[in-house]
Amino acid sequence: MAEIQDLKDILSNPRKIAIVGHPNPDGDCIGSMCGLCAYLEAAGHEVKMATPDRMPDNLSFITDYTKSKNFLYKESEPEKVSAMIKEADLVFCLDFNNLGRSKSLEHDLRQCGAPRILIDHHPFPALDEFAMAFSEPQRSSTCEYMYDILKELDKSNGTRLLGIECANALFCGILTDTNVFSNSVTPRTLSIASEMMDLGVDKECLQQKVTGGYRPERLSLLGYLLENSLVFNDRLKSAYMIIDSATKKRFDFRNGESEGFVNIPLSIKGVEFSALFSHNDDGGTRVSLRSRQYPVNKLAEKYFGGGGHLKAAGGRIDMETEKAGMYFEECLEKYIMDEKLFELNEDSK
Q1: Annotation: CATH topology of 219-348
Q2: Looking at the predicted structure, is the pLDDT value of residue 178 above 90?
Q3: Which CATH architecture has domain 3-211?
Q4: I want to staple 18 with a disulfide (CB 3.0 to 4.6 A). Which of 35, 88, 93, 196 is the partner?
């Protein structure tokens, strides 16, 4: 990595460092932030972290792997977050590929005078927005890439700052973004997992924390959706579920509790596309898309104002959630025909 020497030089003296992530932070976002924080704290830097909104309760344990646990949210502490970014000597932007994806943090990030460093695994990064960029879309997760970056920093510095706390945080992110090693896995992914376990990471313990820390209401919600909300379209080889405002209220929905739901319909024979639509408090709809083999990132970019990976993407639409399913099917049909993905059976319309 040619940029490692530049990063080494930038970090050669103690600095005030801000680490920021994306809205609705998931395990990869939180894990990469806390993993980097643990490493930088061990190197003697002053580190603070922020995301636009709160992390899911079941993933909050990841902050225990940092010394300061200094995690702020723009939605609840806007002045503190703005000051954190303004006063930083260096800003790391993790797990998003352009400043617009940071939503409520975008203005602060564009106004700050400190160099911005990107570390991410999403395609099509806006490289001109960053002083330095580490971007590899072929990686399973930002946490996987972060591990190799920090390992190279240690090698270059002759140090061993990548310790068990850092490894634990990064391992959590790999677990979540690969759906517990079931997708986007390469030989390097498994090699890194093995190296982390050699450092002392307890895979079974972390896996239980990541996948087993939910409230009973989450399971009740999933059962309700499968029975009352799951819609199939054999012609489009698709399925979708909708979490509307009434359903959220009924099950006292909390951020992160629908994680993984969108993957479930793909376990059904014949389903190639899966979607989950969730009501946002601002009146719009959050969109999650998955596929077995087709590039849903193109679908997300063209019709849902988003993007992502080949088989896992997302976005947002300014539309009532109840109308999202019909819109999805209309867009998917156009997409299949435009991209010539497969032949549609017109007789089954």
Answers
A1: Diaminopimelate Epimerase; Chain A, domain 1 (3.10.310)
A2: yes
A3: Alpha-Beta Complex (3.90)
A4: 88
